[in-house]
Every structure is written in C-alpha cells, then in structure tokens.
Amino acid sequence: MALDFDEDRRAPRGAPRDLVTGAITVASILMFVGIGSQVLAATVRHYFMGGAPVDQPLVVALLLNIALILLGWRRNQALAREVAERAAAEERAQMLAARDPLTGFLNRRSLAEDGAALFARAEKRRKAMALLILDLDHFKTVNDMHGHAVGDSLLRAVAVEIERVLPASALMARLGGDEFACAFLFDAANPDVVERIAERLVSRMAQPFDAEGLRCHISASIGLARSDFDCRSIDALMRAADIAMYAAKKSGRNRFGWFDMSMERELQTRNELESGLRLAIPRQEIVPYFEQQIDIATGELSGFEVLARWEHPSRGLISPDQFIPIAEETGMIAELSLSIMRQAFTAARDWDPSLTVAINISPWQLRDPWLAQKIIKVLTETGFPASRCEIEITESALFDNLSLAQSIVGSLKNQGMRLALDDFGTGYSSLAHLRMLPFDRIKIDKSFVISMTESPDSAAIVHAIARLGESLNLPVTAEGIEDGEIERRLIAAGVSRGQGWHYGKPLSTAGARRMLAERRMLHVAQAEPFRKATSRRRAG
Ligand code: C2E
Ligand code: CA
Ligand code: CA
After folding, report:
1. CA angle 297, 301, 303 (to 5 degrees)
2. Which residue's C-alpha comes closest to atom 11 of ligand 1?
3. pLDDT tens readout for residues 188-226
4. Where are the beta strands (DSSP E) in 286-416?
5. Distance between first and last Cα of the chain
6. What is the mean pLDDT of residues 60-75?
7. Is 423 close to ligand 1, i.e. is its CB under 6 Å away?
8. What is the distance in A from the centroid of ligand 3 to the CA of 479?
9. In this structure, are 231 and 339 located in the same domain?
C-alpha cells in the first residue's frame, strides 16, 4: 500500500517539473539557433566584408542563452538520476513487501497471489497443483534454549534445505514462525512425485542442523493437499494442507500426510465441541465420576479417582479424551478443573473420613502460578479436608517449568495434600523425574496392566515398577485391572493399590452415594443438612 501511495505522489510532483525543464531547454535551444545565427552572420559581415561590429546586447543575449542551455541540461541530468533512484527504491520496497526478509522466500501474502496464478495455470495445462505445508517440530524449544539468533540461523538453514529438495519452478514461502509452504505443478496421475518430495523433506529435517556452531535436532510435520481433489481455490488448498499438517502432528510428528475429508469432519466436530464446552462448564454439564481405588490385598475401598464426564444434552456421555485436550488448547482447562473439583469435594463431604479423593491436574494447569491458591480456595469453600485429597500429575507436566511446578506442589503439600505420579511407564519415565517432585505414590499406566497377562514385556515392566516403588519406599497403584487374574498377579508383584473395571466402572455422584450408603460409609451427621440442601435445590 505504501508503494501505491508513493507512486501517486511522484506523478504530480515529477511530471510538471519535467515539462517545465524540457520547455525551458527547447525554448533556449530555439533562441540559441535564432540569436546564434544572427551573431554568426554579423561576425562574418564584420570580419570579411567590413560591416559594423557585432551588437553588444546580442552577444550578451547569446552568452545568457548558452548559460540557460547548460542549466537545463544539468537539471535534466539531476531529474534522470532522481527517477532512477526512485525506481530502485520502489523495486527494493516491493521486494521487501513480497519476501520474507529472513529466508528470502515469499511471504504469506505473496504466496496467496502467486499461488492463485499457479492454480489458474494448473487448470489451463490440465495439471494438478500440490500444496505442501511444513511445520517444524520442537522449534520453540531450540528458540527458548539457545536464543533467537540460533533460531533464526536454523530457519535459514531449513530454507536452504527446502530449496535443495524442491523443483526449481516451485513457489516457496515462509508463512511465519517455523511454518513453510511450497507449491508446484505435477501430473495428476502421478502423485508419487509429491510424496517423494515430502519424504525427502521429512528425512532431511530429522538430520541434525548446524546453527551458529550449535548442533540442533528437530524434525518436521508435513501436510499435503492437491488442487484436483475437492479444492476449488488457493485458499481452500491452503486450509486443506494446514489441516493435514495438524493431523500429521497429532499422529506423532516427523511425518507427512495427505488431506482427506474425514479430517474436515473431525475438525467440524471439534469446533462444535469447543463452542459447546464454553457453555457446558458454567452450566455444570461437565460432572465428576468416581472410580473406586481398592487396597488389593484386603479388598477394602480406600477412595476414588475423580474422572470428568460431559453429560451432553444431545450426544449423551462424552469421555474426557474428547474434551480435555480441547479445554487445554483453548485455555478452558483451569475453569473446567476447578468446577469438577468443587462438585467432587461437595459430593464427598459426607463420605466416610477414611476415603480419599484423587484429582487429575493437567500439565497446562502447572503453568498457572495461582493454581495452588485456587485449589486451596475450593477446599476451604467446600470444607473438604486437604489431607484426604491426592493430586495426580503426569510426567509430561515436569518438563515445562519445573521450578513453578515445584513451588505449586510445595504449597499443596504444605496444606497436607498428597502427590501421585500418573501414567508411569509411558513417555519419558526416568528415575530423575521421581526426584524432581516430592511424590507420595506411583501409578502404573493402565496399558501395561491390561496387557500383563498376554505380554511378557508388559508383565516385566509392571514388576520393574513395583520393585522401584519398593526400593524408593513409594506405594504403587495399578490402574486398568480388568479381571481377577491380573489382580492376583499384581498382589504377587507387591502392588498395594488398584483400580479398574474388575471393581466396577466409574460411578456418577448419585451412584457413588448409593454404593456408600449400602456399605454404611456415609456420615449421617453431615449427610442430613447436605441432603436437605440438595433436595431444596432440586425442588427449586
Ligand atoms: P487417567 O488419569 O489415566 O484415568 C484412567 C482412565 O482409565 C480413565 O479413563 C478410566 O475410565 C480408565 N480405566 C479405568 N479402569 C480401566 C480398565 O480396567 N480398563 C480400561 N480399558 N480403562 C480403564 P477416562 O475416564 O476416559 O479418562 C481418560 C483420561 O482423561 C484420564 O486418564 C485423564 O488423563 C483425563 N482426565 C479425566 N478426568 C480429568 C480431569 O478432571 N482433569 C484432567 N486434567 N484430566 C482428566
Ligand atoms: Ca489419573
Ligand atoms: Ca493414569
């Protein structure tokens, strides 16, 4: 836009000046011809024919005329220089506006323009256009750990490699951050060409890069879309490749994948869940369910793990795997989690005081410096004792901001809460993690427990974790106990606590109450006013 403005300004200012200088020069040349010929004739007459000497004013006029021509010429030179400089500056500005200054690739806007032209060319030549979106994995870690200079240098090196792999005629763009896009034409009957390029990019990106003398390890996720499959415009093509790239990330990164329509449907469902979730939390449609935790040696009930469920008015019961990730990505997890806690602690107030309540804390929540205060506030307001509350966190939570996690956990433990390391055995389990935070318990991930009767590897892992707990003096809980045989083997391995479908599926608040009433594990003294309060609410 700045360019157009400049262009507009130059015309009215430059053009008349050009015209005036030109007119003066032409007029002075004409005058020169007129006066010059008079002076020449008078001089010839004077020297060769004895005529009168040349008129003094005429000579002065001639000299003035020559000065005028010189002035006009110099002015013309200066103007020509100015025009050339302006054109060069404009060209540079145009370049800057169209290109990414770091890599020299096209930027998002110019990719849209050039891409639209390529799209039209593909249709004319009966070819297909491929659009490839490449996003680096873990680039943020490099940037955070080594600084922006190293990050920039890495991005430049990545651009060089992309250029090396792609055909010379391809459009290459940096869309921003660590996201790149490439577009090129290919024979619709031969999409292998596109896959080979994507494959080569994925394998090159997984090799180490040298940035400012540092060896950096990254990888890339690539989404592919083609113009002849459901993409009617360059915008649709970009969107499709973007969706495919996110799908590649979700299924484990360091890979490429084509867009397909099921991804579009999945996105639509996700968007519906996301907008529904915003209303569902304040309406308390997200409710706690309670899974029994059993002392497996004695068979006694020791407490419950709180698991979130969405009682959706039209879709029925939705599992947390479907909405917790959305709540995390959209920043709603804190509100959701506190709402679940408030409901669970309220429900558990009149349960037998021997029963514990375990709540799950998302890694995202451990970035909130006020988390401990918020949890303590809910405990105070609901009157539930902190000493009966256990917090479950997964190992992935430990990587983000360890010192903040340590301070949050420190505050919670000071209140008397206990801490369990959830899903142990998956991800990046290591002994070091067990020392990072003051854990009171380890939970073996259900994937090993469920399969331990069939898989010797799973059984070995369960035994190793049980021994580890023993040597560190940390009690171990096994989740995913689906039958008596698994339970028997866990008792033999020395696991103290367990949960799973063998003891029952997670119960609603009413279901848990019913079960506890049957076992005479409700505290009548507190239960009465509580029951009255709830029945009053229901009646109202
Ligand atoms: P998790 O914390 O590992 O929870 C255990 C999951 O295993 C639960 O799934 C439970 O229903 C399931 N499970 C229990 N016993 C068995 C069994 O014998 N066999 C099988 N196949 N599965 C069993 P659920 O409720 O779908 O929860 C999934 C995950 O969602 C949880 O995994 C947890 O990471 C997350 N989640 C649930 N509620 C909350 C919450 O309130 N806040 C947060 N941040 N995350 C939650
Ligand atoms: Ca858990
Ligand atoms: Ca778990």
Report:
1. 120
2. 506
3. 999 999 999 999 999 999 999 999 999 999 999 999 999
4. 286-295, 300-312, 316-318, 356-360, 389-394
5. 62
6. 85
7. yes
8. 7
9. no
Tell me, what's the pLDDT at 68? 83
Ligand 1 neighbour 479 (Cβ under 6 A): yes
8-state DSSP, 388: G
Q: Which domain holds residue 65?
A: 15-98
Dist. CA 296–CA 477, nearest whole Å: 9
Q: 79 and 126: one domain? A: no
- Whether residue 370 contacts residue 334, with contact meaning beta carbons closer than 8 Å, is answered with no
Q: What pLDDT shows up at residue 430?
A: 67
Query: For residue 305, how far is its CA from the centre of ligand 3 (angstroms)?
Result: 10
Last residue of a domain, one of 46, 63, 98: 98
Q: Is the CB of 322 under 6 A from ligand 1?
A: no
Q: Determine whether the shortest distance from the Cβ of 307 to ligand 1 is under 6 A.
A: yes
* Beta-strand runs (E) in 165-285: 171-176, 179-186, 209-211, 214-216, 219-226, 255-258
Average predicted confidence (pLDDT) for the chain: 90
Please work out whether the CB of residue 498 comes within 6 Å of at least one atom of ligand 1. no
- Ligand 1 atom nearest to CA at 288: 41
**How many CA within 13 A on the CB side of residue 282?**
4
Q: In this structure, which ligand is nearest to the CA of 499?
A: 1
- pLDDT one-digit tens code per residue, 225-280: 999 987 889 999 999 999 999 999 999 999 999 999 999 999 999 999 999 999 99
Task: Tell me, yes or no, whether 190 and 57 share the same domain.
Answer: no
Kindly state whether residues 335 and 423 are assigned to the same domain. Answer: yes
Q: Is 397 in the pocket of ligand 1 (CB under 6 A)?
A: no
Whether residues 49 and 118 fall in one domain: no
Whether 390 is in the pocket of ligand 1, judged by its Cβ within 6 Å, is no
Q: Which residues contact 417 (CB under 8 A, 6 or more apart)?
A: 375, 386, 387, 389, 390, 391
Distance 409 CA to ligand 1 centre (A): 22
Q: Which residues contact 261 (CB under 8 A, 6 or more apart)?
A: 230
- Looking at the domain assignment, is residue 272 inside a domain? no
Provide the 8-state DSSP code for 254.
S
Q: Would you state the pLDDT for residue 9?
A: 38
**Is the same domain home to 94 and 186?**
no
User: Which of 67-71, 440-444, 453-457 bottoms out in mean pLDDT, i.e. has the lowest?
Assistant: 67-71
Ligand 3 center from residue 393 Cα (angstroms): 9
- Phi and psi at residue 24, in whole multiples of 5°? -60, -45
Number of domains in the chain: 3
The alpha carbon of 360 and the centre of ligand 3 are apart by a number of angstroms equal to 9
Q: Which residues are found with C-beta within 5 Å of the ion, ligand 3? A: 422-423
The reported pTM is 0.70
For residue 175, give the nearest of 109, 240, 225 by alpha carbon. Answer: 109
For residue 277, give the amino acid letter.
L
CA of 446 from ligand 3 middle (Å) equals 6
Judged by DSSP in three states, 186 sits in strand
480 alpha carbon – ligand 2 mean position (Å)? 11
Residues 42 and 145 in one domain: no
Q: 202 lies in a domain?
A: yes
